[in-house]
Amino acid sequence: MMKRLMVVVVILALLSGGGIWAQEEAVVAECAVRPLGFASFVLGSAAFLVTLPFSIVVGGTGTMAEVLVKRPYRFTFQRDMGDGLVSFPDHDSGQR
Q1: Residue 23 near residue 9 (C-beta atoms within 8 A)
Q2: Residue 82 dihedral angles phi and psi, to the nearest 5°
Q3: What is the pLDDT of residue 30?
Q4: In 6-35, which positions are buried (b, 16+ CB within 10 angstroms) versus exposed (e)?
Q5: Angle of helix 20-58 relative to helix 2-15, nearest 10 degrees?
Q6: How many CB atoms lie within 10 A of CB 44?
């Protein structure tokens, strides 16, 4: 399975044209980040359902739904590839 994934990543990088390395890094990052986003969506949905009776009493259902369900859903399913990922400056460039 991992071998097939690497073949797909290399083919996509070769077909992309300019900026191959930057796009390959985005693909690799997405392969790690999307499953984590999905896991946070599933766990957040479960936490929302467990705490729903308490949030109804307190009146924070909208905030809880936004933080635990809507944000992970949008991050996982509605954003474009590479959007929303933090880019760190290169250590070699001297920027901080």
Answers
A1: no
A2: 90, -15
A3: 78
A4: eeebeeebeeeeeeeeebbebbeeeeebee
A5: 120
A6: 19
Q: Which two tokens stand for residue 96?
A: 């901080």
pLDDT digits (tens, 9 = 90+) for 9-59: 777 665 655 555 556 677 777 788 888 889 999 999 999 999 999 999 999
- In angstroms, the Cα distances linking 55 to 28, 58, 60, 66 are 38, 5, 5, 13
Cα-only R_g, the chain = 18
Residue type, 61: T
